[in-house]
Amino acid sequence: MPERSDRDDAPAGERPDRSASGIRAFDAARAFDDHGSALLGFAVNALRDRPLAEDCVQETFLRAWRSRDRFDHDRASERTWLFAIARNVITDALRARSRLPRIGNDDELEGRSAPVNDPLDRLQIVEGLARLSDPHREVILAVHVQGRTYQELSVATGVPVATWRTRAYHALRSMRRYLEGTEEPDVSTR
Question: Where are the domains of the chain?
Answer without folding.
Answer: 6-99, 119-180
